[in-house]
Amino acid sequence: MSTTTSNLSQGAAATKDKSSIIGRGNKEGNQLFRDWYQELTTAPQRGEHSAYVFVMGSMAEVLQSFGIHTIFPEVNGLQTAVRHVADDYIAQGEDYGFSTDVCGYVKADVGLQLRGGDHPMGKIPKPSLAVYTNACNTYVKWAEIWERMYNMPSVTIDVPGSRAAGRHTWSGHVDFENDLKYVRGQINELITVCEQVTGKKFDIDRLRETMHYSNVMLERYERLLELNKAIPAPYNAVTDGTVYLGVANGFRGRAEGAQYFTDLVEEMEYKVANKIGTTFEEKYRLVFVGVPCYPIFRRFNEMFTEWGGAFVGSSYMWFASGGANTGFQYDLDNPMDSLAEGLLVTTRDAMDTMFFSNRQIVDNIEPYKIDGVVYHPIKSCRTVSTGLADNRRAVIDESGAATLFIESDHMDKRVVSEAQMKNRIDAFFEGLATRKVRESR
Amino acid sequence: MTLPRLLDSYESKSIDDAIIMCRDLVEDVDYPTVKKWRDNGGKVVGHFQVYFPEEIVHAAGLLPFKVRGSNIEARQGESHFGSYLCSILKTSLEIALGGQVTLDMFVSHPICDSARNLAAVFGRNFDYPCEILYLPQNPNSKFAADYLRGEYARLAREVEKIAGREITTEQLNNSIEVFNKNRALMRELYAIKRDTPWLLAVDEAYVLVAVGGMIPREEHNALLEWAIPKIRKRDIAPQDRMRLVFSGGFCEQPPLDLLHVIAQFSYVVDDDLLVGLRYIVDDIVAGDDPFAALAEAYINKSSYSPVQHDLDKPKEHMLLKQIKAANAGAAIISAAKMCEPGLDEQVAYTKALDDEGIRYFVTEFEERMSNFDSLEIQLETFIENLLFA
Predict the structure, then answer these.
(1) For the CA atoms of chain B, what is the radius of gyration?
(2) How far apart are CA A327 and CA A216, in angstroms?
(3) Cβ(A379)–Cβ(A409) under 8 Å?
(4) Whose CA is closest to B131, among B62, B65, B48, B61?
């Protein structure tokens, strides 16, 4: 796909006033987030139900169709980190008994639950149910903690992933159909639980509506990723990307989410058409692989932008969107089968981008004009981080790309060494500069 | 088909010497039995912890080899991983990279975030098939057993490619019978440890079980059939020792010396060491659809571990049940360093034990740890407290 204006917003971008478009995505995204937390805070007063879910396979379409709020403990966790209060929550989780080597998100959430849901963004309701896939094994262990804390239904949606790199099966293949039947069956079981929790009858037309909003969002999300092929890139895939991801998860299956991404694509198409980049002069185009360093989120990014390093791509925007990057489109004429297929295909893709992403990274180097690959494995997340050192070796072997490998954490600042990180980053850019000089000769 | 004998002759040895032979084999980082199998033209399927349906590989005439890490320095393996990971990943890769074992296929499972990645890491470094077997994490779904039946059939097709022949129903049923016998013998071994623990120390039982992961099960059955009567006849007097359950050995294995230290102070009357080899707790009924029988057993006739989610088997309840069934007075709640599922479970276990008033000792281990002085003192103090408090 090229980076020309899409049919969705063709014409609109040309007529918009620059001042009303640029920066709109971040501003509206942040506002949506504040509103969302407010909505969650007041949900119990209105007698509304909430489900604890995760970003990879949130089942938002089903839950939204029952009017059940989706609460993302991962998002709650990162919000404590960027607001520099994660330590208090983590410490409470460790006091409860969890090891320093357990995921920071989990411990911060345990702290949050022990505080009765008190969070910097609002008050997180207790769950009426928990829904989680196996895309990350820690999801399952995490849900077991809630099972012990709350007397509520706990629903696993087990989604088999790719068995090996590049080995995908599709509709009609015996193995795909076996996986699909399993996923479809579990969705039916989830629906039964939702009916029991809410006392509402399942409404397939309401499901179609939520799936329609997801269709719009997923189509725009895929387009958004494509747009960053432009030079200069219109957004930062790590910092801006985190805002977009928040909306993509929190507002999936909702009209507000669909509208947000429609507007966001319009903004980015405008920026691309007018060659408007981010807030600094782009000298090096980078892809980020891993999970952001939230305890020093702004500073982490600055250490790259100071050298003119722009994150034009991020594996985080692939897997943490639950596979929205695939742009999967549900068949609204056959919603149940299509929902199962979509969940299987997109969650599988999210897992692929964690376990088998080396091919994808290499394939993105040319179209996105990547100068370097930044690996940021974190202590907390073995799902994302375990294979990254080996992934890096494969990427270097296949492409000769310049790479940087820095380890820290997305929650626990005890594992974040800013000075060491800066030394490594500076050396990386010096190397990139030398490469550029050599290549220009 | 006549299987090559992989173990040295033990029939004329004393039981103590036979156990030493097993210990040497389990600790040998060059895996001589696997080499011997290959030297005889055999092929090997390496399967990572915890549970794997070995019957399928066995039925194809291949050797299922349990990849359980190794007491080896991960000179090459280390550079393929980051810092905050368990040791078993690195040493499991090391034995393959270093040529200590040569595989024809490698299978890992979604038991944890790291293990699932291991198949991808192997796949980037070896030409032979490396894949993930997606054992169900939702055994409570009524669709799980049917799904697993299909997943086993898929695995069998991959295994058949390695073997170069089809697996017949008859062959698979035969393998199920071999493994039924094997599991029954291991249950017998564990019954000795539970009922007369002075006759069989935890480290001794461990090596007798572990050797099964590196030889054909027929040969393991013969070894256990020979050993069990001899263990029963051992002339060892019981001592007034604390009866303990050891928890935390489901994936990365504690060093044998650590188990030996524990055995000096206590009777370990049950444990989860290499639980994958003993995961199916009852005979599997072979029949017209052996894949379905294997799948049904995994769902409904299985043990528990921190890496399988099952609403019908809350793990802390299962541990309490295990402690009660073994008539144990206390527990060692251990976890491998950086093992997230194990560390998570320590919290649930200790809270449940607190609620029940059962004393416990919490510790971490690493497969390559070599200094046990501090642990020995702590453990001795713990046990003295229990005995004399």
Answers:
(1) 20
(2) 9
(3) yes
(4) B48
Distance (Å, whole) CA B185 – CA B212: 11
Cβ-Cβ contacts under 8 Å, A355 against chain B: 116-117, 119-120
Q: How far apart are the first and last CA of chain A?
A: 32
Q: Where are the beta strands (DSSP E) in chain B?
A: 44-48, 63-67, 105-108, 130-132, 242-247, 266-271, 330-336, 359-365
For helices A24-42 and A239-250, what crossing angle results, to 10°?
40
pLDDT single digits (tens) B93-143: 999 999 999 999 999 999 999 999 999 999 999 999 999 999 999 999 999
Among candidate residues A372, A292, A345, A249, the one with its CA nearest the CA of residue A104: A292
Instruction: Compute the distance between CA of residue A293 and CA of residue A139 in angstroms, rounded to an integer.
Output: 20
**Angle at A362 (CA atoms; ends A361, A365), nearest 5 degrees:** 90
The CA distance from A28 to A23, in Å, is 9
Taking the alpha carbons at both ends of chain B, their separation in whole angstroms is: 60
Q: Tokens standing for A428?
A: 């990386």
Both tokens of B377, joined, read 């003192």
Q: How many CB pairs under 8 A join A and B?
A: 173
Short-list A138, A382, A98, CA closest to B309? A138
Chain A contact set for B159 (CB, 8 A) = none
Residue entry with tokens 């007018």: A274
C-alpha A431: how far from chain center: 30
Contact B202, B249 (CB under 8 A): no
- Res A14: pLDDT: 47
Mutate to test the interface with B, among A98, A106, A144 (most CBs of B within 10 A): A144
Which tens digits make up the pLDDT trace of A241-297? 999 999 999 999 999 999 999 999 999 999 999 999 998 899 999 999 999 999 999
CB neighbours of residue A38 within 10 Å:
13
Pairing of the two strands A402-405 and A129-133: unpaired
Helices A104-114 and A137-149, packing angle to 10 deg: 20
The C-alpha atoms of residue B115 and residue A135 are separated, in whole angstroms, by 13
- In one-letter notation, the amino acid at residue A374 is V
Reported as a single tens digit per residue, the pLDDT across B218-229 is 999 999 999 999
Coil, helix or strand at residue A439? helix
Is 0.90 exceeded by the ipTM?
A: yes
Greatest Cα-to-Cα distance within chain A, rounded to the nearest angstrom = 71
Total Cβ atoms within 10 A of residue A410: 30
Query: Which structure tokens are listed for A123?
Result: 């008050």
Q: Which of A238, A237, A303, A289 is nearest to A396 (CA)?
A: A289
A315 Cα to chain B: minimum distance (Å): 16
User: Could you give the angle at the alpha carbon of B79 between the alpha carbons of A424 and A355, nearest 5°?
Assistant: 90
Q: Which chain B positions have a beta carbon within 8 Å of A407's beta carbon?
A: 82-84
CA gap A74, A104 in Å, rounded: 10
**Which residue from A144, A358, A407 is facing B82, i.e. has the nearest CB?**
A407
Residues B127 and B109: their CA atoms lie apart, in Å, by 19
Q: At A253, phi and psi to the nearest 5?
A: 80, 10
Q: Give CA torsion, residues B85, B87, B88, B90, to 10 deg.
A: 80
